[in-house]
Amino acid sequence: MYSEPARHGADERAVEVHRPTPITPAATAPAPLVPVQPGTVPAVSSVVLPDGRIVTGYAIEPAQPEPVAAKPVVSRAAVNVALGGVGFLAVCGGLLLLTSFIAALTALVAKLIILAAVIFGGWIAAQVFRTSGHSGGTTVNIRKAVIKRNHFHA
To answer: What is the pLDDT of residues 117-133, one digit of tens each?
Structure first.
């Protein structure tokens, strides 16, 4: 606590060291038993300081960290199998997404073909059933025709 005093003749001082003396606990009547949590309870100790004060407290031991359990060594084969499994699942998921995409694309193409057929068929129907005054064919009145030898004559 103090450094060595300098040896310069008159400056020499004696250093007095005070050591605290522990107080022994007084004998008392036994206390009733109280349930205590598992583990040991440290003993209470009192110390008398040089100036006459008394300090009472527990002596605490520094907490020791629990030893770290050694990690088991993982073999390369186990790592390869695990990585292979992850890769296999990734490929399966990708194939599932690919087949879903192909099925959706096929359905879209089918719908577009049907839509084109409906539009084109409607255009053709509009051409056939157009109600304009001009017709480009020959009109035959069947009621006036005479049937002779399986031929129609007008």
So the answer is: 999 998 888 887 776 55
